[in-house]
């Protein structure tokens, strides 16, 4: 059974507390303000068998403690669930609120806060933070960062007239983008969107690809053979991971020339086929895309092939389309040439037109 009791000892709330200024918590309970001062809850002294929203219920040692959900502690339509082992509760909040008692409105849902495709994450006490994509920073992801390599080799400055038909060249991440005038489209604004006829150039599609006209005959596209892909069939379509070459739970990823097996300790080797005896940080093959691993203090360093970057060479900087055929190598950006491409070949050489 429970009995209503009250003693003369009450906690003194802070003068700034509006709801708690009336001392609603009995028997030494501590008042906690919620919902911006519109509501409260009481934390009862652990040394006394007290319960209820205001710590005004005396719980007999011979009776079962009342459910902590009886006082409706979950706000804003939150659902209260009892943990019967500890006689505590958990609030399951609606999407619009969060917090231990669903007391905070989710700022990420009330307005668009994060810019440039940033992800809004609600924080404590009615706050939020923006998780920014690559090359953006700031409270709202409003600041654009230009990699030093791009700043030193601004392709838009190096190659005047890169964008055709009056298009404007602008840096976009670690590459560039042509902003086209009305009536033109394509990577270089080379395709007219006005009614016209396009004829296939026999040399437009590479590596045996077939040229077809699209969009009511105003642009061209390539139908590639099974071994190639890309806008002009310029990329070798290989998938060495299909044969599952990695052993001992190693994870396979496709690189530009061959596959890479990310090994699970203590295994190492090209296919994670052997047990390491050195415990080197390079044993797990951490570098992707054929990057070379070297020990760096207690960690490792990856030396990436041209066209790749990142701590583990995981970022692909290769152009999405290419105007030269680099098979059996691959195409990389080369701002100093026209067209602005070059070939990285399996031998390690960089060639201007082909391998």
Automatic annotation (TrEMBL):
Entry keyword set: Disulfide bond, EGF-like domain, Glycoprotein, Repeat, Signal
Gene3D superfamilies assigned: Laminin (2.10.25.10)
Cellular component annotations (GO), alphabetically ordered: plasma membrane; protein-containing complex
Domain of life: Eukaryota
Signal sequence region: none
Domain EGF-like: 16-56, 65-103, 104-142, 152-190, 196-234, 237-273, 278-314
SMART domains: EGF (SM00181), EGF_CA (SM00179)
Keyword NAD: no
Disulfide cysteine pairs (residue numbers): 25-42, 74-91, 93-102, 132-141, 180-189, 205-222, 224-233, 263-272, 304-313
SUPFAM superfamilies for the chain: EGF/Laminin
GO annotation, biological process: establishment or maintenance of epithelial cell apical/basal polarity; heterophilic cell-cell adhesion via plasma membrane cell adhesion molecules
Gene Ontology terms, MF aspect: calcium ion binding
Keyword Glycoprotein in annotation: yes
CDD domains, sorted: EGF_CA
UniProt-listed PANTHER family: CRUMBS FAMILY MEMBER (PTHR24049), DROSOPHILA CRUMBS HOMOLOG (PTHR24049:SF22)
Name listed for the protein in its UniProt record: EGF-like domain-containing protein
Organism: Adineta steineri
